[in-house]
Amino acid sequence: MGKRRPFGKAFARRAVVFSTALMAVLFAVFLILYANRGTMLTRYAASAAERGDYAKAVSLLEASDAENENLTEYRYRLAQSYLEAGKLSDAETLFSQLSGYRDSREMISECRYRAAGLLFDHGEYEAAKDAFYALAGYADALARYDACRYEIAAATEAKDAKEAFRLFRALGAYGDAKARAEAIAIRLTGESDPQYAVNAMLGISNETLEQIRELDAARGALPTGRLAVGFYHTVGLKSDGTVLAAGRNDEGQCNVSGWSGIVAVDCGAYHTAGLRSDGTVVAVGRNDERQCDTESWTDIAAIVCTDYNTVGLKTDGTVVSTGFQPFAELSGWQHITALGGGSYAACGVSENGQVLSSHASMRSEDMIDVIGIDVSTGYCVGFKADGTVLCTVRPLPWTDIVAVSAGSTGILALDKNGLVHTYWFRSRDAIDCSDLRDVAAIAAGGTHCAFLLKDGTVVTRGENTCGECDTGSWNLGATTIE
To answer: Distance between CA 380 and CA 362 in Å, rounded?
Structure first.
């Protein structure tokens, strides 16, 4: 008989062979599964999305490490679900990560709007007020901002009647705010006539009232919208409705010789806009950001330009805009009486004298009782009916002011006597205007400024890199300030 192999050794060898084969099969299966991992996870994600479980769908697609066109949509749907569930912070974070997908930018505002509403509902009116003010123009945020201010004023009346008077008066025509301000004034002054009582509270004498009437008359005689400057060009509107331009014309911003029936002009960095007497707007120059797409506008009462936008004030007090900046908040502005534009921002004055801005750095609740405004890089400047000036960067001691113009290097102001006042941010940018007399309109730019004199001539000072100061032969038509 032959020699028998030990049973244990044979079994061990068979076991090794079997296990090796099994591992090979399992490894092959693993490789197949791994190769199809993305497809499987995508399928599972789609199934989760169908069930409305967008958190699971997003998690699965993120784990797949593969590009998937549905991932952004699932994230958007997840953000929406957070919004509806009241998880406002989580929703805002997700919408912020979507880089403008669909209406995610608007949804960010909606998250903030609802968060502000919760603050209001909990009686946190100061915090709610700031939140709604930051949303100025979105939905009815401005109305709710005023509602917060009203509640704050009402709560203040029992503790400090003078402060409550100031707060109610700042609300203008909102609700019964005007009546409550007058009631407080009558109670504190003993005057029976509401207007006399309010004037007494404000320290407005008969002499001051006469001064305000005089300034109003001077402003009414100003040739508004007649002069504007861009980066390297100057534009002037003649009394016959035609337009002159000088300076750089590489983008066609000076192609205004065919214009007629124009009642106001303004300039952006490299474009020019004109308001026609029929309420339509024409624009020429650089249009890469669609700042000249104004053909469809109607019922426009005033125009301003930022560097790369054109903004129009409609006759109904609403605002339209086109250009580089979306300026979504402007679409919600109402009851606007004046506009200012410059750099990358636009500002408006509401009928109660409150300044609204598209840019947070220019928002200030101290900017009240304003009747005129202008804007430039990071700041705005406005003037009140009494001729004093408000500015978001520093106090300005000027009086009897009838117009202001903001530039990136400094501020110009015009007083009732036709004299120009200046404030320059850096001495090296200063332009001497001390010799100018009988000025009727001012326009401040970055490196040059223009001045329309009462006799219709135009004085332009500063750098003349592209001929922007070659306006010596211009006469826009005589004007006077009574």
So the answer is: 6
Structure tokens at 428: 């090296």
Please tell me the distance from the alpha carbon of residue 412 to that of residue 440, in angstroms, as a whole number: 13
Structure tokens at 436: 């100018």
269-319 residue pLDDT tens:
999 999 999 999 999 999 999 999 999 999 999 999 999 999 999 999 999
Does residue 60 belong to any structural domain of this protein?
no
Token pair in block for residue 185 = 């004034």
Q: Is 20 exposed, middle or buried (0-12, 13-18, 19+ CB in 10 A)?
A: exposed
Bridge-based pairing of strands 448-453 and 243-247 is unpaired
Helix (H) or strand (E) holding 319: strand 319-323
Does residue 223 share a domain with residue 190?
Answer: no
Are 200 and 324 in the same domain? no
Host H or E run for residue 71: helix 70-84
Residues 458, 223: Cα–Cα separation, whole Å: 13
Q: Are 351 and 173 in contact (CB under 8 A)?
A: yes
Q: What is the pLDDT of residue 482?
A: 39
Domain extent at residue 190: 160-204
Q: What is the pLDDT of residues 79-103, one digit of tens each?
A: 999 999 999 999 999 999 997 899 9
Nearest-Å Rg of the Cα atoms of the chain is 32
* Residue 64 lies inside a defined structural domain of this protein: no
Confidence of residue 35 (pLDDT cuts 50, 70, 90): very low
In this prediction the pTM is: 0.77
Query: What does DSSP assign to residue 320?
Result: E
Please give the average per-residue pLDDT across 386-401, as a whole number: 95
On whether residue 405 sits in a domain, the answer given is yes
d(CA 262, CA 410): 29
Using DSSP, state whether 302 is helix, strand or coil: strand
| C-alpha span between 241 and 226 (Å, rounded) | 10
Same domain, 225 and 193: no
419 in the same domain as 364 = yes
